[in-house]
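can u do me a favor
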Protein backbone atom coordinates (compact mmCIF):
# COMPACT_ATOMS: atom_id res chain seq x y z
CA UNK A 1 0.00 0.00 0.00
CA UNK A 2 1.02 3.63 -0.51
CA UNK A 3 0.83 6.31 2.13
CA UNK A 4 -1.52 9.22 1.48
CA UNK A 5 -1.83 12.52 3.34
CA UNK A 6 -4.90 14.74 3.39
CA UNK A 7 -5.21 18.13 5.07
CA UNK A 8 -8.41 18.85 6.94
CA UNK A 9 -10.07 21.77 8.68
CA UNK A 10 -10.11 20.56 12.29
CA UNK A 11 -13.65 20.55 13.66
CA UNK A 12 -12.60 22.93 16.44
CA UNK A 13 -11.59 25.47 13.78
CA UNK A 14 -14.96 25.60 11.98
CA UNK A 15 -17.59 27.95 13.37
CA UNK A 16 -21.23 26.88 12.85
CA UNK A 17 -24.16 29.23 13.58
CA UNK A 18 -27.69 29.84 12.40
CA UNK A 19 -27.85 32.34 9.57
CA UNK A 20 -28.49 35.64 11.30
CA UNK A 21 -26.81 34.45 14.49
CA UNK A 22 -27.35 32.00 17.30
CA UNK A 23 -25.86 28.63 18.12
CA UNK A 24 -27.33 25.43 16.66
CA UNK A 25 -30.04 23.88 18.83
CA UNK A 26 -28.57 20.39 18.44
CA UNK A 27 -25.03 21.11 19.58
CA UNK A 28 -21.99 20.04 17.53
CA UNK A 29 -23.55 19.69 14.08
CA UNK A 30 -20.37 18.54 12.32
CA UNK A 31 -19.86 15.71 14.83
CA UNK A 32 -23.56 14.82 15.07
CA UNK A 33 -23.78 14.36 11.30
CA UNK A 34 -22.04 11.03 11.94
CA UNK A 35 -25.53 9.72 12.83
CA UNK A 36 -27.53 11.31 10.03
CA UNK A 37 -28.17 14.69 8.45
CA UNK A 38 -27.73 16.81 11.58
CA UNK A 39 -27.62 19.92 9.38
CA UNK A 40 -31.29 19.38 8.47
CA UNK A 41 -32.18 18.91 12.14
CA UNK A 42 -31.80 22.70 12.49
CA UNK A 43 -34.83 23.25 10.20
CA UNK A 44 -36.18 25.87 9.61
CA UNK A 45 -32.84 27.60 10.17
CA UNK A 46 -30.20 27.69 7.47
CA UNK A 47 -26.65 27.28 8.79
CA UNK A 48 -23.53 29.38 8.26
CA UNK A 49 -20.14 27.64 8.45
CA UNK A 50 -16.96 29.73 8.59
CA UNK A 51 -13.62 28.06 7.86
CA UNK A 52 -10.08 28.81 8.98
CA UNK A 53 -7.19 26.91 7.40
CA UNK A 54 -6.81 23.18 6.57
CA UNK A 55 -3.86 22.88 8.94
CA UNK A 56 -4.23 19.30 10.23
CA UNK A 57 -2.52 16.50 8.27
CA UNK A 58 -3.87 12.94 8.39
CA UNK A 59 -1.61 10.26 6.92
CA UNK A 60 -2.92 6.77 6.22
CA UNK A 61 -2.20 3.73 4.07
CA UNK A 62 -4.08 3.48 0.81
CA UNK A 63 -4.64 0.74 -1.74
CA UNK A 64 -6.92 2.39 -4.29
CA UNK A 65 -6.56 6.21 -4.26
CA UNK A 66 -10.01 6.54 -2.69
CA UNK A 67 -11.01 7.87 0.75
CA UNK A 68 -14.07 5.76 1.41
CA UNK A 69 -16.67 5.10 4.05
CA UNK A 70 -16.25 1.96 6.23
CA UNK A 71 -12.87 0.55 5.04
CA UNK A 72 -13.57 -2.68 6.89
CA UNK A 73 -14.28 -6.32 6.12
CA UNK A 74 -16.13 -7.61 9.13
CA UNK A 75 -13.82 -7.00 12.09
CA UNK A 76 -10.76 -6.40 9.89
CA UNK A 77 -9.44 -3.01 8.76
CA UNK A 78 -8.48 -3.48 5.11
CA UNK A 79 -7.56 0.09 4.13
CA UNK A 80 -7.00 3.64 5.39
CA UNK A 81 -5.17 2.77 8.61
CA UNK A 82 -3.57 5.79 10.24
CA UNK A 83 0.22 5.80 9.72
CA UNK A 84 1.35 8.92 11.61
CA UNK A 85 0.39 10.17 15.09
CA UNK A 86 -1.87 13.20 15.00
CA UNK A 87 -3.41 15.50 17.60
CA UNK A 88 -6.68 17.07 16.52
CA UNK A 89 -9.29 18.87 18.65
CA UNK A 90 -7.12 18.14 21.69
CA UNK A 91 -7.12 14.35 21.19
CA UNK A 92 -4.05 12.37 20.10
CA UNK A 93 -4.51 9.38 17.81
CA UNK A 94 -1.61 6.94 17.59
CA UNK A 95 -1.29 4.36 14.81
CA UNK A 96 -0.32 0.75 15.39
CA UNK A 97 0.11 -2.40 13.32
CA UNK A 98 -3.11 -4.10 14.46
CA UNK A 99 -5.86 -4.78 11.89
CA UNK A 100 -8.47 -6.61 14.03
CA UNK A 101 -10.90 -4.09 15.53
CA UNK A 102 -11.63 -5.85 18.81
CA UNK A 103 -7.99 -6.36 19.78
CA UNK A 104 -5.98 -4.08 22.10
CA UNK A 105 -4.63 -1.65 21.20
CA UNK A 106 -7.31 -1.38 18.53
CA UNK A 107 -6.45 -0.33 14.98
CA UNK A 108 -6.98 3.30 13.99
CA UNK A 109 -8.53 4.15 10.60
CA UNK A 110 -9.52 7.28 8.69
CA UNK A 111 -12.95 7.45 7.01
CA UNK A 112 -15.09 9.53 4.68
CA UNK A 113 -18.01 9.70 7.09
CA UNK A 114 -20.44 11.85 5.14
CA UNK A 115 -20.68 14.41 2.36
CA UNK A 116 -22.88 17.50 2.30
CA UNK A 117 -23.40 20.26 -0.27
CA UNK A 118 -22.87 23.85 0.92
CA UNK A 119 -23.18 27.10 -1.00
CA UNK A 120 -21.35 30.41 -0.91
CA UNK A 121 -23.16 33.75 -0.97
CA UNK A 122 -23.20 33.71 -4.79
CA UNK A 123 -24.75 30.24 -4.92
CA UNK A 124 -21.58 28.36 -5.92
CA UNK A 125 -21.76 24.78 -4.56
CA UNK A 126 -19.04 23.17 -2.45
CA UNK A 127 -18.96 19.47 -1.55
CA UNK A 128 -17.86 19.21 2.08
CA UNK A 129 -16.60 15.86 3.40
CA UNK A 130 -16.84 14.92 7.06
CA UNK A 131 -13.61 13.09 7.98
CA UNK A 132 -13.66 10.69 10.92
CA UNK A 133 -11.13 8.62 12.82
CA UNK A 134 -12.27 5.19 14.00
CA UNK A 135 -10.43 3.57 16.91
CA UNK A 136 -11.61 0.00 17.12
CA UNK A 137 -15.38 0.43 17.02
CA UNK A 138 -15.47 4.06 18.20
CA UNK A 139 -15.85 6.70 15.49
CA UNK A 140 -15.36 10.46 15.91
CA UNK A 141 -15.72 13.11 13.19
CA UNK A 142 -12.53 15.13 13.61
CA UNK A 143 -12.84 17.65 10.80
CA UNK A 144 -13.80 18.34 7.22
CA UNK A 145 -12.22 18.67 3.79
CA UNK A 146 -13.62 19.39 0.34
CA UNK A 147 -14.14 17.33 -2.76
CA UNK A 148 -12.69 19.92 -5.13
CA UNK A 149 -11.46 23.42 -4.33
CA UNK A 150 -11.59 24.43 -0.67
CA UNK A 151 -12.92 27.87 0.29
CA UNK A 152 -10.31 30.54 1.07
CA UNK A 153 -9.56 31.06 4.78
CA UNK A 154 -12.28 33.12 6.46
CA UNK A 155 -14.95 32.14 3.93
CA UNK A 156 -18.50 31.48 5.12
CA UNK A 157 -20.54 28.78 3.37
CA UNK A 158 -24.21 27.98 3.90
CA UNK A 159 -26.35 24.91 4.42
CA UNK A 160 -29.67 25.77 2.74
CA UNK A 161 -32.64 23.86 4.17
CA UNK A 162 -34.45 21.98 1.42
CA UNK A 163 -31.64 22.68 -1.08
CA UNK A 164 -28.41 21.27 0.33
CA UNK A 165 -27.95 17.51 0.04
CA UNK A 166 -26.41 14.97 2.41
CA UNK A 167 -24.97 11.47 1.94
CA UNK A 168 -23.91 9.34 4.90
CA UNK A 169 -23.35 5.84 3.54
CA UNK A 170 -21.06 4.42 0.88
CA UNK A 171 -19.70 7.72 -0.39
CA UNK A 172 -16.12 7.98 -1.67
CA UNK A 173 -13.65 10.72 -2.50
CA UNK A 174 -10.76 10.54 -4.95
CA UNK A 175 -7.79 11.52 -2.81
CA UNK A 176 -6.30 14.79 -4.09
CA UNK A 177 -2.85 14.30 -5.65
CA UNK A 178 0.15 15.57 -3.69
CA UNK A 179 1.55 18.99 -4.41
CA UNK A 180 3.98 19.24 -7.30
CA UNK A 181 7.63 18.97 -6.22
CA UNK A 182 9.34 22.31 -6.71
CA UNK A 183 12.07 24.69 -5.53
CA UNK A 184 11.46 27.83 -3.46
CA UNK A 185 12.41 31.01 -5.31
CA UNK A 186 16.01 31.94 -4.53
CA UNK A 187 17.29 28.35 -4.68
CA UNK A 188 20.56 28.17 -6.63
CA UNK A 189 20.80 25.57 -9.40
CA UNK A 190 24.10 24.36 -10.89
CA UNK A 191 24.67 25.42 -14.52
CA UNK A 192 27.75 25.27 -16.77
CA UNK A 193 28.43 28.90 -15.81
CA UNK A 194 28.00 28.39 -12.07
CA UNK A 195 25.19 28.50 -9.51
CA UNK A 196 22.16 30.56 -10.58
CA UNK A 197 18.94 31.43 -8.73
CA UNK A 198 16.21 29.33 -10.30
CA UNK A 199 14.01 32.35 -11.04
CA UNK A 200 16.73 33.70 -13.40
CA UNK A 201 16.71 30.54 -15.54
CA UNK A 202 14.73 30.24 -18.74
CA UNK A 203 13.72 27.47 -21.15
CA UNK A 204 16.78 26.64 -23.24
CA UNK A 205 19.28 27.34 -20.45
CA UNK A 206 21.36 24.34 -19.44
CA UNK A 207 21.71 22.75 -16.01
CA UNK A 208 24.18 20.18 -14.70
CA UNK A 209 22.76 16.74 -13.93
CA UNK A 210 24.07 13.96 -11.72
CA UNK A 211 25.31 12.16 -14.84
CA UNK A 212 27.64 15.10 -15.52
CA UNK A 213 25.77 16.31 -18.59
CA UNK A 214 24.63 19.86 -19.27
CA UNK A 215 21.03 19.45 -20.44
CA UNK A 216 18.53 22.06 -21.62
CA UNK A 217 15.56 23.19 -19.57
CA UNK A 218 12.37 22.54 -21.51
CA UNK A 219 9.92 24.47 -19.31
CA UNK A 220 9.85 26.44 -16.05
CA UNK A 221 6.62 27.06 -14.16
CA UNK A 222 5.88 29.28 -11.18
CA UNK A 223 3.25 29.09 -8.43
CA UNK A 224 2.69 31.37 -5.45
CA UNK A 225 0.79 29.67 -2.63
CA UNK A 226 -0.16 30.17 1.00
CA UNK A 227 3.00 29.07 2.80
CA UNK A 228 1.44 28.68 6.24
CA UNK A 229 -0.27 25.34 5.80
CA UNK A 230 0.35 22.09 3.96
CA UNK A 231 2.61 23.76 1.37
CA UNK A 232 4.95 25.43 3.87
CA UNK A 233 8.54 24.91 2.62
CA UNK A 234 10.87 22.32 4.09
CA UNK A 235 14.23 23.82 5.10
CA UNK A 236 17.31 21.61 4.92
CA UNK A 237 19.84 23.57 6.96
CA UNK A 238 23.26 24.48 5.59
CA UNK A 239 25.65 21.55 5.94
CA UNK A 240 22.87 18.94 6.27
CA UNK A 241 23.53 16.35 3.56
CA UNK A 242 26.41 18.70 2.62
CA UNK A 243 24.21 21.57 1.39
CA UNK A 244 26.18 24.75 0.61
CA UNK A 245 23.52 26.88 2.33
CA UNK A 246 19.94 26.47 3.53
CA UNK A 247 17.89 24.65 0.90
CA UNK A 248 14.11 25.21 0.71
CA UNK A 249 11.94 22.65 -1.08
CA UNK A 250 8.24 21.93 -1.32
CA UNK A 251 7.22 19.05 0.99
CA UNK A 252 7.05 16.42 -1.77
CA UNK A 253 10.28 17.39 -3.51
CA UNK A 254 12.63 14.42 -3.48
CA UNK A 255 16.28 14.44 -2.46
CA UNK A 256 18.79 11.92 -3.86
CA UNK A 257 20.62 9.81 -1.27
CA UNK A 258 22.90 6.81 -1.31
CA UNK A 259 22.21 4.42 1.54
CA UNK A 260 23.81 1.16 2.62
CA UNK A 261 20.64 0.35 4.57
CA UNK A 262 18.51 0.90 1.44
CA UNK A 263 20.76 -1.51 -0.42
CA UNK A 264 20.54 -4.05 2.39
CA UNK A 265 16.78 -3.91 2.95
CA UNK A 266 15.41 -2.67 -0.38
CA UNK A 267 17.99 -3.89 -2.86
CA UNK A 268 18.77 -0.40 -4.17
CA UNK A 269 21.61 1.81 -2.95
CA UNK A 270 20.48 4.99 -4.70
CA UNK A 271 17.05 6.28 -3.69
CA UNK A 272 14.84 9.36 -3.61
CA UNK A 273 13.34 10.65 -0.35
CA UNK A 274 10.62 13.32 -0.12
CA UNK A 275 11.76 16.37 1.86
CA UNK A 276 8.83 15.97 4.27
CA UNK A 277 10.13 12.50 5.23
CA UNK A 278 13.49 14.00 6.23
CA UNK A 279 12.02 16.30 8.90
CA UNK A 280 13.78 15.78 12.22
CA UNK A 281 12.82 18.97 14.07
CA UNK A 282 16.42 20.21 14.07
CA UNK A 283 18.39 20.26 10.82
CA UNK A 284 15.34 19.61 8.62
CA UNK A 285 12.20 21.55 9.53
CA UNK A 286 9.00 22.88 7.99
CA UNK A 287 9.08 26.67 7.87
CA UNK A 288 5.69 28.41 7.48
CA UNK A 289 5.67 31.76 5.67
CA UNK A 290 2.94 34.13 4.55
CA UNK A 291 3.41 33.12 0.91
CA UNK A 292 5.77 30.80 -0.92
CA UNK A 293 6.78 31.18 -4.55
CA UNK A 294 7.72 27.82 -6.00
CA UNK A 295 9.30 27.10 -9.38
CA UNK A 296 9.02 23.84 -11.34
CA UNK A 297 11.90 22.84 -13.62
CA UNK A 298 11.18 20.37 -16.44
CA UNK A 299 13.83 18.53 -18.47
CA UNK A 300 13.39 16.00 -21.28
CA UNK A 301 12.95 13.29 -18.65
CA UNK A 302 13.14 12.89 -14.89
CA UNK A 303 16.68 13.87 -13.88
CA UNK A 304 18.71 14.85 -10.85
CA UNK A 305 19.99 18.42 -10.75
CA UNK A 306 22.11 20.16 -8.15
CA UNK A 307 20.33 22.61 -5.83
CA UNK A 308 22.46 24.39 -3.23
CA UNK A 309 25.11 21.78 -4.01
CA UNK A 310 23.21 18.49 -3.61
CA UNK A 311 21.30 16.31 -6.06
CA UNK A 312 17.51 16.78 -6.08
CA UNK A 313 14.89 15.90 -8.67
CA UNK A 314 13.60 17.81 -11.65
CA UNK A 315 9.84 17.93 -12.27
CA UNK A 316 8.31 14.47 -12.62
CA UNK A 317 5.45 14.48 -15.11
CA UNK A 318 3.41 11.56 -13.81
CA UNK A 319 -0.38 11.86 -13.94
CA UNK A 320 -0.62 12.93 -10.31
CA UNK A 321 1.92 15.72 -10.73
CA UNK A 322 0.21 17.02 -13.86
CA UNK A 323 -3.16 17.05 -12.11
CA UNK A 324 -1.67 18.95 -9.17
CA UNK A 325 -0.34 21.78 -11.34
CA UNK A 326 -2.45 24.96 -11.52
CA UNK A 327 -4.77 24.77 -14.56
CA UNK A 328 -2.93 27.52 -16.47
CA UNK A 329 0.45 25.84 -15.94
CA UNK A 330 -0.94 22.45 -16.93
CA UNK A 331 -2.44 23.91 -20.12
CA UNK A 332 0.85 25.63 -20.99
CA UNK A 333 2.81 22.44 -20.43
CA UNK A 334 0.43 20.31 -22.49
CA UNK A 335 0.54 22.87 -25.31
CA UNK A 336 4.32 22.38 -25.47
CA UNK A 337 4.20 18.60 -24.96
CA UNK A 338 0.82 17.33 -26.24
CA UNK A 339 1.67 13.70 -25.46
CA UNK A 340 2.77 14.39 -21.88
CA UNK A 341 -0.46 13.13 -20.32
CA UNK A 342 -0.30 9.78 -22.13
CA UNK A 343 3.38 8.89 -22.55
CA UNK A 344 5.00 6.74 -19.82
CA UNK A 345 6.68 8.68 -17.01
CA UNK A 346 9.43 6.96 -15.05
CA UNK A 347 11.27 8.09 -11.95
CA UNK A 348 15.04 8.04 -12.28
CA UNK A 349 15.38 6.22 -8.93
CA UNK A 350 13.13 4.40 -6.48
CA UNK A 351 11.05 6.80 -4.38
CA UNK A 352 10.76 5.70 -0.76
CA UNK A 353 7.58 5.56 1.28
CA UNK A 354 7.58 7.11 4.74
CA UNK A 355 8.24 3.76 6.52
CA UNK A 356 11.09 3.00 4.09
CA UNK A 357 12.56 6.46 4.64
CA UNK A 358 12.32 5.99 8.41
CA UNK A 359 14.21 2.71 8.02
CA UNK A 360 17.20 4.21 6.22
CA UNK A 361 17.26 7.35 8.39
CA UNK A 362 17.85 5.26 11.50
CA UNK A 363 21.56 5.36 10.63
CA UNK A 364 22.36 8.88 9.33
CA UNK A 365 26.05 8.03 9.17
CA UNK A 366 25.28 5.47 6.46
CA UNK A 367 23.69 8.10 4.21
CA UNK A 368 25.64 9.76 1.42
CA UNK A 369 24.27 12.60 -0.72
CA UNK A 370 25.58 13.42 -4.18
CA UNK A 371 27.27 16.81 -4.43
CA UNK A 372 28.60 19.07 -7.11
CA UNK A 373 32.03 18.13 -8.43
CA UNK A 374 34.85 19.75 -6.44
CA UNK A 375 32.81 19.74 -3.22
CA UNK A 376 33.87 17.48 -0.40
CA UNK A 377 31.08 14.90 -0.74
CA UNK A 378 31.31 14.36 -4.50
CA UNK A 379 31.13 10.66 -5.34
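np, heres the sequence
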Amino acid sequence: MAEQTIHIFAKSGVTVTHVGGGAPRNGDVIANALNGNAFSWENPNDLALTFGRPDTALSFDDRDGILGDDPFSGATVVDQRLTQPVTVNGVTYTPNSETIRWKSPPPVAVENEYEVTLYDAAGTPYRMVGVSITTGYTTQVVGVMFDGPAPPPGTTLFYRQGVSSYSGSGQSLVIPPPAVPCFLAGTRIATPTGLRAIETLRAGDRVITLSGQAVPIRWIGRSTVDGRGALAPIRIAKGTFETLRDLYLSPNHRVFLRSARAELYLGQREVLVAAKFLIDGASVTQVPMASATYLHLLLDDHQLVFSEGIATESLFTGAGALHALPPAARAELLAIFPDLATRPARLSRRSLTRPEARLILQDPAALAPACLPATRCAA
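The mean pLDDT is 88. hope that helps!!
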